[in-house]
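Hi F.,

I've been meaning to write this up properly since the lab meeting, where we talked about keeping a consistent format for the predictions we share between groups. The idea is simple: the sequence comes first, exactly as it goes in, then the structure tokens exactly as they come out, then a line or two of notes. No screenshots and no reformatting. I'm using this chain as the first example so we have something concrete to point to.
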Amino acid sequence: MNFQLTQEQQDIQQRAANFAAEYVAPYAAEWDRDETFPADAIKACAEHGLTGLTVPKEKGGHGASSISYALAIMELAKACSSTAVTVAVSSMVAETISHYGTQEQIDKYIPKILSGEYIAGSFALSEPGAGSDAGALNTKVQFEGDDVIINGEKCWISSGTHAGVFVVWTRTGEGEGTRGITTYLVEPEDEGFHIGRKEDKMGLRASTTVSLQFEDCRVPQSRKMGESGRGFRIAMTALDGGRIGVASQALGIAMRAIEETHTYLKRTQDTLNGEQRQWLAEMTSKASAAKLLILRAAWLKDQKRPFSEKAAMAKAYSTEIANEICQRAVALLGEAGCNEETAVERLFRDCKVTTIYEGTSEVQRIVISRSILRD
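Output, unedited:
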């Protein structure tokens, strides 16, 4: 068993760390305070080759490993989790199109996402009545000549204000439940497509989250991605990989919280007491365990081996211990953990949603238990 990163993985991690230090960290608190979407930084991230890392070279991508991707997201999240989630979702969109799109779709969308011409891509699955139960989605499609007409609503869509392409899951009538779901690529200029209000969120305030309305939205049938009626499988495959990204984001937040705590305590106290030392040791140990879970899931994905269960384990554990670590950081810093004197207050707010989106912790445990019982 070799825990040593390859030279390429080390290089990508360092490139992400350098980028975050120069383009992201100095401005993250201001972006959060003013609720500013960092479009220039997101575009620069793509220009530095950090968006869509895992898209295969033969599809126009960088061909990097999932391990490299996870390490990059950790480094971005340490600086600004809003930036990290925007890059992670765009990367998931690019990878999904590269796996399931036609050659025409790949040629059109992948270069624009990876170059930063499209500031972001969006993943439109959740609906007001279909969150954890994606099979209950009710956005409907009618066929009209060479077009499809989409009617329905999506909610909690990350980066919707700046996305150049939306991967949208619809019900096309080939069956009930998870059957009969088909995926289409929607562009913001499409007739009948409307971007709704921006959510006023507790955390990730520099990442926009919106609803989408489809009112007789006309989309060419050539933008169907994958087989008719097989869209649910596309969504679940994308979410498996996305969970590695969310786990990495949460761990990046936790690592930053540990760093902030250590720095503050060393600056303000001559000697740490026993309880403080115990808490720091526990926080660091749990973060290390989370990292191993994440890298194991990423390694399995790179080896093209089943990784759904391991990604669910990594996502559930990493996001929950990240929240625990941030809570401990606030407790250890006291007043300084509750204001802008340190980044801990922002990290605490940003961390909560990682246990919810791309599958709640409860959903992760369902995935894990099904895998265990099937074995």
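Notes:
Residues 178 and 266 are 54 Å apart (CA to CA).
Residues 232-374 form a domain with the Butyryl-CoA Dehydrogenase, subunit A; domain 3 fold (CATH 1.20.140.10).

If this format works for you, I'll send the rest the same way.

G.
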